[in-house]
Amino acid sequence: MHDIDKRIEQWRAGLTGSEFLGSSSVNELENHLREEMEHLRTSGLSDEEAFFVARHRLGDTAALEEEFAKVDPYRRLAHRLYWMATGILGYFLVLHLSLCATKVSTLLGYMAGMRNSYLTILACIVQVTAFAGIGTLVLRHHTSHSKSQAARKISGSVRAGIFVACAIVALWWIENLSNYFLVRTMPIRDYVQLSRASGWASFGWSLLMPFLVVGLTAILALRDRRRAEVQ
Amino acid sequence: MAISKDLVAASATPIILCILAESDSYGYAIIRRVRELSGAKMEWTDGMLYPVLHRLEKQGFIESYLTKSETGRARKYYRLKKSGIRALAEHKSQWKLVHNTLQQLWEKRPCMT
Questions:
Q1: Is the domain of A108 the same as that of A213?
Q2: What is the pLDDT of residues A116-160, one digit of tens each?
Q3: Looking at beta carbons, which residues of chain A come within 8 Å of B47?
Q4: CA distance B36 to chain A (A)
Q5: Residue B96 belongs to domain spanning
Q6: A38, A62, A131, A196 - which has most CB atoms within 10 Å?
Q7: Measured in whole angstroms, how far is the alpha carbon of residue A75 from the centre of its chain?
Q8: What is the ipTM, given to two decimal places?
């Protein structure tokens, strides 16, 4: 019985993560599942079999979520707008993170005595590292995000949005202060070298960015589908 | 004989309203009643009942209240409201019209049985 309770708890956790199912709806579905299991057990099915059949009869999580989403179209619209805003904010965060990393690293390289093509190579290495780093971070965050139910609630999302917006402003300041420092202190010839390095890095980034977006979207969609199948 | 998804979806609202017109009920009992009435030929995906109930509640046709079940867990019952009775009457006349139309057509062409 203990195992079955654990399985029901796991199934429940999958539903609780949904944006469109409140705790009252999840309780209602759990009651239904338990009653159906009880009925199936009296027909001679084992706990495990009863759970499997009752869960199947209730329908898979993705389909349930889709149907519950239709109950409140405005909430659904808000949900979509939220993801659009997340996408836009995410894009600017990544862009500024990349620009900031390039500016700061080339500046540090310059201060350490690096010149000409070495600076360009350094900027490109930083871009590739940022590319790999952002990809890893998003994938890791998505894993913990899937596990955590509370993280999927709107209140948590708003906090995350504020954090991202603050991060963008902070990065923008770092970039501009770096620029200001460079223009004030550096000989024009050296500044040209740094600008060239940044230019190459931005070019590399613009080539990598579509792969990052397409690759991450495909991986995240695949993970979501697998998660829905498991539940 | 399996009933098409579209027909199941279209008939869900009048069936639920009709069952609630008999007496207050809750999700699992409604599903059991549908199975019993249709001789288990009308198979709903159980979970899909709840979004329909919630939509009907949002539209003001039914209302819900909580009571304790035999196991001690809170159970959500649904009750038909006056506007729900009116909606049910409207559904009945629409379905009767569809039924009469089909009946007349089928009677004219007895080979289609």
A1: yes
A2: 778 778 877 887 787 778 777 777 766 655 544 444 555 556 666
A3: 29, 32, 58-59, 63-64, 67
A4: 14
A5: 5-108
A6: A131
A7: 21
A8: 0.86
